Amino acid sequence: MDGILQRTKGDKVIWTIVVFLSLVSLLAVYSATGSLAYREQGGHTEYYLFKQLSVLVMGLLIIYFAHRVNYTVYSRAAQIGFIISIPLLIYTLAFGSNLNEASRWIRLPVINLTFQTSDVAKLAIFMYVSRQLSKRQHVITDFKKGFLPIIIPVGIVCVLIMPANMSTALLLGASCMLLCFIGRVPVKYLLSMIGAGVGLILLMFVFAKITGIKMRTETWAKRIEHFTNNEDSETPYQVQQANIAIAGGGLLGKGPGNSTQRNFLPHAYSDYIYATIIEEYGIFGAFLILMAYMLLLLRSIRIFRQCPYAFGAFLAVGLSVTLVIQALTNMAVNVGLFPVTGVTLPLVSMGGSSVIFTSFAIGIILSVSRNVDELEGKRIEQERIAKVMEQQNMQTA
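Given the sequence above, the corresponding structure tokens read:
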């Protein structure tokens, strides 16, 4: 055990955040799934707690082993990951498991494991974009040589995700645009791509209207209509229950395990786990969760500024940005600031593939951090040796 702790490197604050969010996840998932487990597992109320615990332990192991790998290896793996993600997304659209009229999941044979292919694609595309940004800094202002080779893969992935999961596609596109902005891509190019994205969404609505093909456009339109408080629309049931949970939380909440809306709130253990946390731990607990993600972003920006190599810098800030944007979106949906989406709270919501790929992303960030710390340690050691030699030379003279 001591050997593992000694080999655990990287930003200690990020490690602390990971442990904190994992503990919050166990408490929140156990509270939110107690009644569900009792009904579905024959009275075994701890079923989902142990399931989430096993997933989180696996996530911690993934973080550990991922952070031990030199981050330059991920540059070589980025292209392979991107190439693999394309057929996976196509297969998911054609043969994936349906949830709320959307094909988001595929089931692996033999081991009978399901996972969201969009999680694979998100991780792959961020590594790929980071690689391309680092390699094309000298031509980044050139539209054909610098911008198109970066943005075309992003567009392909977003288009393949969009029919089944619009919110994930939009968040992925926005995160990539932000990473490109950090990578000195001209703003006029980014604005043109935003315009193209809006135009594509409008074309999908028109195409679905004309052909009658179901592309979840009706679901998207209803969610936007409900969010804008149209007089003819009724507030969605999950939004009503989330509002009740938040109102009942107050400043300090009802206490761990004392949520009442967990029995009425759909997906209280995943999409709406933040509302459950607010009810039990109040505004104070919600603020701590928010600060944890913001601190993760700040520490990653620190790694970005200290990393001497472009790929590592873009990788750290890009992966942290997408995790934090996803977290902020989930929180905004829970408190009624965004329309309803299927976005989960990273490392907190109950899940398998989302926790695993989130852990892999954090492991990569810590890999960059470990490399930065080692380089800084070598620099300090070299300065110390140089100072000692200088003192010895002065004494000899």
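The radius of gyration is 23 Å. Try to locate this feature in the token string yourself.
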